[in-house]
Design goal:
By secondary structure, the protein is of the alpha/beta class. Helix content is 43%, strand content 11%. The protein has a 4-stranded mixed beta sheet. It comes from Clostridium thermosuccinogenes.
Length: 504
């Protein structure tokens, strides 16, 4: 029995060991089976195939531009406004967006963006020598006329990668007067905006309320903001503030401006008239010689009559006397652009103010606001040998910056404006932007300046002179100047040889 019992215990122990071994084997088999199933094998003894790890897919940033390695290429910008490219980090949402854009472009293309001060003389010297001056230049728009004449600029329509017909380019190049036919010598851009250089009218709300005048915002909305209405309000604003019976700079008037040479020109363009009319076939004609033009100039005389409807600054005073008069409540309307800080003192004035567009004149039913010829524009030097890289980087900068102007305007609203209505007006200004070929043409040929100068001469400075006679005195020379300008815009101008001196 003991023996049987011993065998039984031995068998029982063997069974227990077997069960344990079976359980361990079952667990190992399950793990092996799972592994081979995941690997897609049919037998646990097969060796899994070696696989190459997949590289992460390239993320589409939406720009439609290739990620090219430019090997550390230095993209040089000639611009005297360094903050346009490298603002102080954290100083504003706009500054942060600009920094993010610059960094994004540099990383995307393995390039470096740097800035140098722009010098017109150095630029001219570099181009003449065939040396690279910069990838792009940023200058006041009027300066580009000189470079067109000297054949220093590339036709931007020929630069690879640029999508100048894209909405974000067209939205900012609102006047297109740096284009002639299929040639584009320069442009504004989302990152070189001209929105601050569109002329507006600031109005003093306290004077409006005091005199019970119509709300300018309502007039704009109802398309009743016209030359006639503005003149009516100017006349109502006139007051002999010190009661001395004489009207001088101590009294109140209807209108002032940031620069008195400009005001007649701006009102003339706001009327819907042109100085140089450019036809689709490229034909250009001086048109300050029509009944509509003369009618407009006569109206401008009434709106800009110094000592009556227009503030008479004292002889020897700078143009800032006009802005000072507005801040002191001596002027109802102030006309100028918001750029370059000229009218910045109004943001600190005690009286509330608002902004409206330039009023409509006699030849339009739309608001038209001049984009100052001091507005910045960019162009590409003809001596730039790296147009493929320039175009790629330039297009990326434009695409990435297309919404920055909204940040810029929001900052103006939060820090400078007094009401929501002004904010809405400023948002719409780009739709009203106009200019004229005369502002490029005056740099191409001096005779065109003579034709342009008829407007401030007769409209502001010498109001007794009839515009028809003044136009007649310059018209022939202006026509010759326009033909010369046309050839320059086509790149066909040849400087005449100096006449030989046969004396002696």
């Amino acid at each position: 029995m003991l023996k049987k019992r011993g065998i039984t215990w031995v068998l029982l122990l063997a069974m227990i060991i077997g069960i344990i071994a079976s359980g361990c084997g079952s667990s190992d088999k399950k793990t092996t089976t799972d592994s081979t199933t995941n690997a897609g094998s049919t037998a646990s003894t097969e060796t899994p195939e070696e696989t190459t790890p997949e590289e992460p897919e390239e993320q589409d940033d939406g720009s439609g531009l290739p990620d090219q390695d430019l090997g550390g290429y230095v993209f040089t910008v000639a611009d005297n406004n360094a903050s346009r490219w490298f603002p102080e980090a954290g100083s504003s949402d706009l500054a942060n967006a600009i920094i993010e854009r610059i960094n994004w472009v540099q990383e995307k293309f393995n390039c470096k963006i740097e800035i140098r001060n722009h010098s017109e003389d150095e630029f001219a010297t570099a181009v003449m020598a065939g040396d690279k001056y910069a990838d792009i230049i940023v200058t006041p728009t009027w300066e580009l006329g000189r470079h067109i004449k000297a054949k220093r600029l590339v036709n931007m329509n020929t630069i690879p990668h640029l999508r100048l017909d894209a909405e974000y380019w067209n939205r900012y190049d609102s006047t297109s007067y740096l284009s002639y036919g299929d040639i584009k010598y320069g442009t504004a851009a989302p990152f070189i905006t001209q929105s601050d250089e569109v002329w507006v009218i600031a109005f003093n709300k306290a004077i409006i309320e005091e005199l019970g005048l119509e709300n300018p915002y309502d007039l704009v909305k109802n398309k009743q903001w016209t030359f006639e209405k503005m003149l009516e309000m100017q006349q109502a604003a006139k007051r002999d503030l010190n009661g001395d019976g004489a009207f001088d700079s101590n009294d109140r008037y209807g209108l002032a401006t940031g620069h008195d040479w400009d005001i007649s020109v701006v009102l003339y363009l706001a009327s819907g008239n042109k100085i140089i009319d450019v036809k689709e076939d490229g034909t250009m004609k001086y048109v300050v010689n029509t009944p509509k033009a003369f009618e407009t100039i006569d109206m401008i005389k009434k709106m800009c009559k110094r000592g009556d409807t227009f503030f008479p600054k004292n002889d020897g005073e700078d143009m800032d006397a006009y802005v000072k008069a507005f801040t002191e409540g001596k002027v109802l309307f102030l006309a100028y652009s918001r750029g370059r800080g000229v009218i910045d003192p109004i943001y600190e004035m005690e009286d509330d103010f608002g902004f409206v567009p330039m009023p409509m004149g006699n030849n339009t039913n739309e608001y038209k606001c001049w984009v100052s010829h001091d507005a910045p524009s960019l162009a590409v030097p003809v001596s730039n040998p790296d147009l493929d890289k320039t175009g790629l980087i330039l297009e990326a900068l434009a695409w990435k910056s297309q919404d920055e102007d909204e940040l810029r305007l929001n900052e103006v609203a939060y820090t400078k404006l007094r009401d929501d209505e002004s904010f809405e007006i400023l948002k719409e200004l780009g739709k009203y932007a106009v200019s004229d070929m005369a502002f490029i043409g005056q740099q191409l040929d001096g005779a065109i300046w003579q034709g342009l100068n008829v407007l401030p001469h007769c409209g502001f400075y010498v109001q007794d002179e009839e515009p028809a006679s003044k136009v007649a005195s310059v018209e022939e020379q202006v026509a010759i100047g326009i033909e010369n300008a046309r050839l320059m815009l086509l790149g066909q101008w040849v400087e005449p040889e100096p006449e030989e001196n046969n004396e002696g």
